[in-house]
Structure prediction request, 294 residues.
Amino acid sequence: IVQFPWANSHGYTDYKRVLDLDKATAVTEYKIGNTTYTREAFCSNPDQVMAFKYSTDDKTKISFTLSMNYPKQMEGHGAFSKVEGNDTIVMWGRAPSIYGKWDNGHEGIVSMAQLKIIPLGGTVTAKGNKLIVSGADEVIMLYSCDTSFIDAQTSAKYVKGSATDPESNVRGNIKKAVKKGYERLLSDHQKDHRSLFRKTYVEFDGSHTHDHIKAFHYAKYELLATTRDTTITRNGTKIPSERFHHQYGGSNHSWMTRASHFLNENVEKHFGFVETANMPSVAEPLMRWIKELS
Prediction:
């Protein structure tokens, strides 16, 4: 959660959000007085980080408070967050192995996330479980996360230093991203994204902006943002729960209360156009998953 001093103010104008499908960036802008505040964000596949840049158009100083916390229902057991140093927050979680029970074998999936703040000018300090940025000209935030999940046939039991240890991956991702810098992260991200996104060019009745074309390009963007040839397949649904364990309730739509993969019409919805879009490699995780289940 990023809390700005003016968060509850009604004095902002010209608010807009832009998702650029070709650049694969999300930009939010608004004005307070004569100052335009901008947040640019992207999620990098090659560097496995989310990157945010906060800036203004007239060098107005940027200040905010940042925190990362689990919902209260998830705290305790295997879930906690903490501040490291004066510029980093770490989150650690362990899911129950079965039906909401934490056993001594710790077989449940482990997750780890790290967020680092890099201010240009100004200061960043720690207070309790929060980071406070004061008087910065520009702020970069880098976030990375991982879990101990490998595939459907491999135990997700956490073993430090092994393939099921997400901590080494996450800390390594952040360390490399800091060294690379924001502009190079953005450049490498867009080069990777466009290598697949630009494999097709579409024109409809002489128009490049027809609604059907926009929908086609958005479908490409959405799939590239959720699965690649080196990852697990795109999930057919979300995880609509504040709990680690998702209950199998008695509702007629009980599938909506748990995290699931679906091998049904969702495959057609999400992967049916990959050949038309000239992106067949994006479907390789799906093919691997089907093979694992067979």
Q: What stands out?
A: The radius of gyration is 21 Å. The CA atoms of residues 79 and 145 lie 14 Å apart.
